[in-house]
Amino acid sequence: MDHLVIQGGVPLRGTVRVNGSKNASLPIIAAALLTDEPVIIEGVPDLLDVRTMIAVLEGLGAAVEYDQERALLRIICGELPPAAPSADLVSRMRASFLVLGPLLARKKAVSLPLPGGCAIGTRPVDLHLKGLSAMGASFSIVGGRVEGCTEGLRGARIYLDFPSVGATENIMMAATLARGSTILENAATEPEIVDLANCLNSMGAVVVGAGTAHIRIEGVPRLGGTRHGVIPDRIEAGTLLLAGVITKGDLIVENLLPDHLKSLLAKLTEAGALVEEVGPNAIRAAAGERSAAVDLKTMPYPGFSTDLQPQFMVLLALAEGTGTVTETVFENRFRHVEGLSSMGARIQVEGRRAIVRGQPCLTGAPVVAPDLRGAAALLLAGLAAQGKTELLQAEHLWRGYCSLEERLASLGAQLKRISAEPERALFTGS
Ligand code: EPZ
User: Fold this and answer.
1) Going residue by residue through the chain (430 aa), what tens digit of pLDDT does each one get?
2) How many CB atoms lie within 10 A of CB 279?
3) Which of 126, 127, 173, 204 shows a CA-CA span of 20 to 30 A to 157?
4) How far apart, in Å, do the first and last CA atoms of the chain sit?
5) Does this chain's domain 3-19+232-428 share its CATH topology with 22-229?
6) Pocket probe mutation, ligand 1, options 19, 23, 127, max atoms within 8 Å of Cβ
7) In which element (H, E) is residue 323 found?
8) CA atoms of 142 and 179, how far apart (whole Å)
9) pTM confidence score
10) Is the Cβ atom of 162 under 6 angstroms away from ligand 1?
């Protein structure tokens, strides 16, 4: 168990660089299962979730080399023996379920533990299974595992009841090797979907329309290897921009794609923050006089990202006036409210809506991180609060942010990481 001790009240100043996207890297690592040729992925951040995904692929028989220094991953999924990822690994990270589509396409059979619910909701996989069933897969759920098989996937017209990111990715990957063409309607349009499609097309797939709600995939007989660089992590970028505003500092966040942050930039401007593009891949973020409270509603992309909702709530907790946060994507994503409240925030939760009465300041306190983005929110609150904050279960952070404490310290943050026990050896590779 790790914890972070944060001495708050220090405005963050300087320049910080964004790493490669976790949520683009994970499906692209799974996509390597679609070919027996080498897949080289650049810009893969050294995160717990990446190490878990690597362990899942190794458990399936893939050969993986990860050069953390160069953020370079090399994967060869040669002859894959019949194997099933361990329940422990899949239960640790929902994204492990992204091997479902590629294994069905490549091996025509798959056995996977159901990804349990998690801190932010039940998170079923019905849309994944429904879409793949339409393509000729059949599934049974036995003892908490999904057993799937197919005589051979065939193209289908699929309508997603909800634009699920994972379901879009699983179906898209499976469809690349199906017989015939697949039309996916009401698909997720997140930038990570586009990055995955670009990688698949570089492997010889034919994916058209990624980034829109209507994606067409023409099946091909096989896919080849590739070398692909992942996009910058828009959620890390947004978290860092919010850190600059919330601590009343002045940050330049570089190696980002402003186009992926439009909804956040609009909300920050509405709240009175100073945000401006200072280059094609850099944004400056500073606080205005005092942030004005705004109303926020999370939506599938290009709406405001649910993954930045907890962090933005910290800005509202310190804003002038009362703002509201409506979480429409997950049913239980307010678990960070408890910690914020113990730091003096005044937040009332009513179902999927939180009413936030801004306060002049927060005060440091011992708080427990509930999940990855809740941990990020409590970290931002500790940086802005007066006094000392102890963030317990800080290891949630390492799932989605690498070398975060060093980067924040380089911007003036006063924090110290205390590890109660060595990080669990998740990663079996080099
Ligand atoms: C991806 O999760 C991201 N994870 C999440 O980021 C992100 O919050 C989420 O998309 C929404 O943008 C990765 O990309 C690895 P969904 P995913 O399927 O694919 C319901 C982070 O912090 N649903 O779009 O699991 C589901 O319950 C993480 O980096 C079904 O009902 O999200 C949820 O309410 C957290 N049935 C909603 O859709 C299904 O079959 C969105 O889920 C699938 C999903």
Assistant:
1) 899 999 999 999 999 999 999 999 999 999 999 999 999 999 999 999 999 999 999 999 999 999 999 999 999 999 888 767 777 777 778 899 999 999 999 999 999 988 865 666 667 899 999 999 999 999 999 888 899 999 999 999 999 999 999 999 999 999 999 999 999 999 999 999 999 999 999 999 999 999 999 999 999 999 999 999 999 999 999 999 999 999 999 999 999 999 999 999 999 999 999 999 999 999 999 998 778 999 999 999 999 999 999 999 999 999 999 999 999 999 889 999 999 999 999 999 999 999 999 999 999 999 999 999 999 999 999 999 999 999 999 999 999 999 999 999 999 999 999 987 655 443 333 3
2) 11
3) 204
4) 24
5) yes
6) 23
7) strand 322-326
8) 28
9) 0.96
10) yes
Q: For residues 174 and 153, is the Cβ–Cβ distance under 8 A? A: yes
Alpha-carbon distance 283 to 258, whole Å?
7
Ligand 1 proximity of 247 Cβ (cutoff 6 Å): no
Region of residue 27 (left: phi > 0; alpha: psi -120 to 50; beta: else): alpha
Residue listed under structure tokens 């640790």: 92
Q: Which residues are catalytic?
A: 118
Q: For residue 147, what are the β-bridge partners?
A: 111, 140
Question: Which residues contact residue 309 at a Cβ distance below 8 angstroms, ignoring those fewer than 6 apart?
Answer: 296, 298, 325, 327, 333, 373
Architecture of the domain whose range is 22-229? Alpha-beta prism (3.65)
Does any ligand 1 atom lie closer than 6 A to the CB of residue 124? yes
> Residue 422 burial (CB < 10 Å; 0-12/13-18/19+)?
exposed
- Top CATH class, 3-19+232-428: alpha beta
Would you kindly state where each structural domain of the chain is located, as residue ranges? 3-19+232-428, 22-229
Distance from the CA of 306 to the center of ligand 1, in angstroms? 9
Q: Are 382 and 8 in contact (CB under 8 A)?
A: yes
Q: Is the shortest distance between the CB of 121 and ligand 1 below 6 Å?
A: yes
Q: Which residue has a Cα nearest atom 27 of ligand 1?
A: 123
Which residues are CB-contacts of 93 (< 8 A; sequence separation ≥ 6)?
49, 52, 53, 115, 399
Helical H runs in 70-149? 87-92, 100-107, 126-134
